[in-house]
């Protein structure tokens, strides 16, 4: 067992408490899950670093250890092929995955993008200002926070979400492009960037039901099918979007410079690394790629 006796922020999960310790707690804050084995030397070398980091974060991050030799259900569910594997959960979803031994520097660099910082308090105040109708004040506060803490990805993420809410898509895309590579590579920012680009490609917000009826009358109209896919994505009906993309691939593999393949990869980004729809539809991507 890897529990630290003096830390309330480190626990061991099993089939009975995994949901509570990992999924439920991830709705409150980030939860780092350490898939390990006592027979693996890299796991034993990794743990003192994890223990130190959790103590340094002082309650802003939970560490949950899962023994892959005994907890087969979760080892299989999360596709653990080697140990140590670290998965960071937030809001019941895996948002980061690291394979193999990690240095303290690399771990902290990743975790700092997700663990709360002082600038998050400023962000909270800015969002309150926005909700009170003081939009310009809110933008000013977030911009100042970004200057003071450029390593916090939640600041540009929040600003881009507000810009998207106001349909100021070009400004949001410009902001994302201006970010440093490591911040622009943040999972949530990458996802939002794709959503915004789908919004830009949307010709008319008709709704998927109306577009379905139109495609029935114009089955060969690939631009109409493209708009239906975009609508499904915006509605977060990703499986129907992927099914429509496969249908388009079968009809015309080279439409608009292989739009179907690039759009499918973008949907995969929105789904996240471990979503079952990715393994279901990836063979179609390989089948039609050329």
From TrEMBL:
One of its GO terms (cellular component) is cytoplasm. GO terms for biological process: response to stress. One of its GO terms (molecular function) is protein-disulfide reductase activity. Signal peptide: none annotated. Pfam families: Thioredoxin (PF00085), TPR_19 (PF14559), TPR_20 (PF14561). Residues 1-116 form the Thioredoxin domain. InterPro entries: Thioredoxin-like_sf (IPR036249), Thioredoxin_domain (IPR013766), TPR-like_helical_dom_sf (IPR011990). Transmembrane segments: none annotated. This is Thioredoxin domain-containing protein. It comes from hydrothermal vent metagenome.
